[in-house]
Amino acid sequence: MREMLKLFMAVFVFSCLSGGVLAAIQNVTRDRIEYQQLKFVKGPTIKQIMEGCTNDPLIDRLKLVDEGRDLHFFLGKFESKPDAVAFETFGKGFGGVMGVIVGIDIKTDKIIGVGVTTHSETPGVGSRAKTDPKFTAQFEGVSIKEPFKVKADGGQIDALTGATISSRGVCGAVVEAAEIYQKLKPTLIEMMRHKKG
Amino acid sequence: MAKTAVQEFTKGLWAEIPPFRLVLGLCPTLAVTKSVENGIGMGVATTFVLVCSNILISLLRNTIPKKVRIACYIVVIATFVTVVELVMQAFAYPLFLKLGIFIPLIVVNCIVLGRAEAFASKNGVLASLADGLGIGVGFTLSLTALAIVREVLGNGTFYNIPLFGPSFEPFSFMVQAPGAFVCLGLMLCMMNILGKK
Q1: Is the Cβ pair A39, B93 closer than 8 Å?
Q2: pTM (2 d.p.)
Q3: Which of A80-89, B8-17, B85-94 has the highest mean pLDDT?
Q4: Residues of B with CB below 8 A from A25's CB?
Q5: Contact call for B71 and A25, based on CB within 8 A
Q6: Torsion angle of alpha carbons A176, A178, A182, A183, nearest 10°?
Q7: Closest approach of chain B CAs to the CA of A4, in angstroms?
Q8: Is A22 close to B97, i.e. CB distance below 8 A?
Q9: Least crowded by CB within 10 Å, which of A18, B51, B112, B121?
Q10: Those residues with Cβ within 8 angstroms of residue B112's Cβ, 6 or more apart along the chain or in another chain
Q11: How many structural domains compose chain A?
Q12: What pLDDT shows up at residue B24?
């Protein structure tokens, strides 16, 4: 019995020490890992949307919790143009969930850019939602108050040929982004002012 | 201890070079050697785990009860592997994405546990350090050698730098899974010829 206890204690102590060390290291690296993930997964899309901004939107970001979800807002500063905000929402595509980043101009409430990040759409068909700039360009300059729908559903967006469901997925994500933006805009502006000061 | 640390180190480079002489750790050897970058990354990660676990296990070799030693070794190795995983995510995220599941799989790499059980649990700290370093460097060299052959033939590049003109037709068989087996087999054959006197 005493020997059993000794063996048990040995493994127990080892596991505790290991857990402690890993918790410490995770604590140290957490922010950097979060930044790296943002940089390599969302970074390219954000850069595209925020083209010409004078800061790094990946560093100037705000985190808000909305209905239990973590939302990252990336802020873009422009010299002549007013500030813009970009964040990711999700739409239901043909092959699963599609991540879409929507950039919105804070002064005019108009969309400055839309880009797909992660998706599992059919390569060469639905995947063009990410690769075809003509498709996403349709959203640029449109007020977020518009109902974003594909033409087949009575809206104004030309769907990608043969990929209506993927196009609908992007529209759905943009609609969600518009809703979140309108709901959280006062909080966001408050937080931005706080950050500057 | 008859052998010096230098001898312990050099044996890992030739006499006991892991994939070719011991024929151990073949899973990562076959899976990640599509490019030189991946091969070196995997080799360095494994070396780090080997050296750290060898040192710690050698230090604790009289503390760990014999009956639960394997469980303790696995805890030690898994801890260092998780450290590598976190650090790689924080500082080399693209490499982490490419190596993917093979980083956590270092835990079950039989080279690491094999050295802990066969060497570090019976020898002093300095000898264990030299042993881990030697085996690790040998493993890295093996992966790099295999990766050079596969990347140059299969992709026409070395460390992502194109070697041949645009007229080069890549022998893409070499970067696919069967190519890994064929290439490893031929290299084993060559090592056996060279080793035979």
Answers
A1: yes
A2: 0.75
A3: B85-94
A4: 82-83, 86-87
A5: no
A6: 10
A7: 10
A8: no
A9: A18
A10: B46, B49, B50, B53, B77, B106
A11: 1
A12: 86
Residue in A7, A25, A36 closest to B83 by CB = A25
Q: Do B93 and A15 touch (CB under 8 A)?
A: no
Q: Domain tally for chain B?
A: 1
- Answer yes or no: do A33 and B67 touch at CB < 8 A: no
Site of tokens 């100037």:
A60
Domain extent at residue A76: 46-196
Q: Which tokens in the block code for residue B181?
A: 């087996």
Asked whether residue A3 is domain-assigned, the answer is no
Instruction: For CA atoms B120, B125, B126, B129, give the dihedral sign.
Output: positive
Q: Which residues of A touch B (CB under 8 A)?
A: 6-7, 10-11, 14-15, 18, 21-22, 25-26, 29, 32-33, 36-37, 39-40
Chain A's closest residue to B67, CA to CA, is A7
- Residues shown for chain B: 197
Smallest CA–CA distance from B69 into chain A, residue: A11
Quick check: is A25 in a domain? Answer: no
Angle at B112 between CA B28 and CA B5, to 5 degrees: 120
Residue B3: which pLDDT band, with cuts at 50, 70 and 90?
Answer: low
Partner-chain contact A21 B79, CB within 8 Å: yes
Domain with B127, as residue range(s), is 5-195
Q: What is the pLDDT along chain A (197 residues), one digit of tens a residue?
A: 788 898 999 899 999 999 999 999 999 998 888 888 888 877 877 877 777 777 777 777 777 777 777 777 887 777 655 578 888 888 887 878 888 888 888 778 888 888 888 887 777 777 877 788 888 888 887 887 777 878 777 777 787 878 888 888 888 888 888 888 888 888 877 777 776 54
